[in-house]
Specification:
Length: 190
């Protein structure tokens, strides 16, 4: 069975994480990767009336299956980078930067949502590529050479970016098609 690598860390957004986990678990083995193999705390973000920023609340816990240092990107058909506050810290992990660059260099499907763009920006893999993210992360994309589009979902080659969790259904549909195309191409199917 083909495997999808799903990245988490403490404060990964629960919908951004569980949406891909459940959707791709239907057709692929989803492997959860993190800085260490342990239990992580997911969070729920909500933009409440009268607030300028999101309110963060504790959500589910999630066990990682593998540490970033042990990931061999050749074993996976896709990489998924959820949002939340986790990417702010994960982008400093050298092994995650290696993994992200390897997926992009191999032209494998890579997906980000919300703050996941911070990982792509830190890995320096979005230069001259069209991307999207939540508006408050626009500068992360632009400062690293990405071409920001204010759209729900943006596909650039095999890179599939999404603004936020209200667009998860469209993001999953787009990513599923990109992964299926990649798997068929690598299997020699038309």
């Amino acid at each position: 069975m083909n495997k999808v690598l799903l990245v988490i860390g403490d404060a990964a957004e629960v919908l951004d994480t569980m949406g891909p986990y459940l959707r791709f678990g239907e057709d692929y083995e989803v492997v959860i990767a993190a800085p260490e193999k342990r239990r992580y705390h997911l969070v729920q973000h909500e933009l409440a009336a009268g607030w300028d920023i999101t309110i963060e609340k504790p959500a589910y816990h999630c066990e990682s299956d593998i540490a970033f240092a042990d990931v061999d990107s050749a074993e996976y058909v896709a990489l998924v980078l959820p949002g939340g506050r986790a990417p702010e810290y994960l982008r400093y992990d050298e092994n995650l930067m290696r993994i992200t660059r390897e997926f992009i260099a191999a032209d494998k499907p890579v997906a980000s949502i919300c703050h996941g763009i911070e990982i792509l920006a830190a890995a320096d893999v979005i230069r001259d590529r069209e991307v999207t993210t939540i508006p408050k992360c626009r500068y992360d994309a632009e400062f690293s050479g990405g071409i920001y589009k204010d759209e729900d979902v943006v596909i650039s080659g095999r890179l599939v970016c999404c603004q936020g969790h209200t667009e998860i259904s469209a993001w999953m549909k787009a990513l599923a098609a990109v992964i299926e195309d990649y798997v068929n191409c690598t299997a020699g199917k038309p």
